[in-house]
Amino acid sequence: MKPKEIRAMSLEEIAQRIRSEEQELRQLRFQHAVAQLENPMLLRNKRRLIARLKTIYNEKLREARQASVNE
After folding, report:
1. CB 28 within 8 A of CB 42
2. What one-character-per-residue DSSP string does 5-66 give?
3. Mean pLDDT over residues 1-5, rounded?
4. What is the mean pLDDT of residues 17-23?
5. CATH number of residue 51's parent domain
6. Can you tell me which residues the record assigns to a coiled coil (predicted)?
């Protein structure tokens, strides 16, 4: 998912996506611990996607707070 696509989402959508991606990451880590993953790069890609989502979420949250303070 590209940053442009994430920025088009609402705060609630991003928060929901973060929760689902973190759940998927937990499942991938468990699979990796029990048996070898077919593609271990999935772990890195999932971690980076979560970080990207959280970064943009925090940016939007900061902008919303700033806008409410300036009113």
Report:
1. yes
2. HHHTS-HHHHHHHHHHHHHHHHHHHHHHHHS--S-THHHHHHHHHHHHHHHHHHHHHHHHHH
3. 92
4. 98
5. 1.10.287.310
6. 8-38
Residues 6+ apart with CB under 8 A from 12: none
56 and 7 in contact (C-beta within 8 Å)? Answer: yes
Q: Output the pLDDT for position 69.
A: 87
Report residue 16 as tokens: 């929901």
Q: Give the pTM.
A: 0.91
Number of structural domains the chain divides into: 1
Distances in Å between the alpha carbon of 48 and those of 12, 28, 55, 65? 20, 14, 10, 26
Identify the domain containing residue 35 by its residue range.
3-70
Q: Which two tokens stand for residue 21?
A: 């991606």
